[in-house]
Input
Amino acid sequence: MTGQVRGVQLARLLGQWHALPGRRRSPDYAALAGSVRGLLADGRLPLGVRLPAERELAEALRISRTTVTAAYRQLRESGHLASRRGAGSWTMLPGNHRVASTGLWTPLDDREMLDLGVAALAAPPQLLSAARAAAEDLPRYLSGAGYHPTGIIELREAVAEAYTARGLPTSADQIMVTSGTQHALDLVLRLALAPGGTVLVESPTYPNALAALAGRRARITTHGLAADAGWEPDLLLGSLRQTRPKLAYLIPEFQNPTGHLMPAALRERVVAAAHAVGTDLIIDESFVDLSMDGTEPPPPVATYDRHSRVISIGGMSKPYWGGLRIGWVRASAPQVQRLAAVRVGVDMASPVLDQLVAVHLLADAEAIVADRRVQLAVQRDALLGALAHHLPEWRVTVPRGGVTLWAELDGPVSSALARAAEEVGVRLAPGPRFGLDGTLERFLRLPFTLPAADLVEAVGRIAAIRYDLDRAGRQRWREPAVIA
Output
């Protein structure tokens, strides 16, 4: 969605904007303006987009034009809309906002917010010693230019050894170091996807992957995941055979946001089906190290690849620290060289010092990852306990790894709940962020990356807000015909 959003598109994104109960029910124009602000805040409505004319939106929403006019006026007054007579109105955000750790815009005065919009951990204690050791290693690189498009050899070898230890023999020539997993995805899309190409993704899926695909003007098709079981094999394979996409982006290890783990038999079948229809697979392994409860992930998807159809991406952000912008691509050696050729037109290379830090962290991976698994299991269980106590109507499948819960709510209130939670100091990632066209309003992603006490406090605040919505008349919510 770029340039202009039509009335029917905005209406679909807004969903049930007019039925947002609270302590004091807002006028319809205020509810509409608040819903548009919510879409801007969580990234579903981009900045600089021209909104539909007042009459067009009124017709799409089946409300009076006066209501839309008043809502647009309120958005202009709050700094979320700029209008020019005869030319239209464009989305913007006030000057008292900043880019938050989620990459989304947030007010400057929200630094005490309990942020459940971020699914990432604070740095491990071993980071400082790794940084000191990296600084001692740095002098041997200072005589050169410092550009290593595929990455320094020590890090590529360390990543290759980690793949080999998982049962997938890998050489350093098959590894390219990137500036994070998102950068890895962007480079693969630049190489493998022409504008307008078709890509199959899971639904729900990682929002920033959807943003990257939108940036490439991809035509996106989806495979819906079951809330309790994950991938339906026949439906997934059928989607590949029917749509024959150029690419498929999948997260088989502790899928973001659902936490599902794809079984080995399905991995093998997906690779075979992809080869048969000419689809390349992008496999996001961001969470592969974060198993819990003794769960052993199946072999990597690339284990079943015999035709260079699988490109694996991963990085340091989830098991180690998001501030260390180190990711990688595992592919065939010729594909790595083609990616490097694409990369030099983007950012040349990743910082050498960061790569050296990553080398030392990976050398201590066994201890660091073991600590992370224990920490996450404690925090996950605290979050599950708080939800069971405060919100027993919500349904949650306990993940065996990763960093998030995917909660099915007791009504399609995800966006309304997220907007209300901001007022009590909790930031949420509503379900529609993880899908297309305003679907998934019955779901909410809840990461368990904050300390246990913060998670319990956040759930208590969310429960109070949910109760307040109920008091104002839960019967106003309609059951959706389809949940994607």
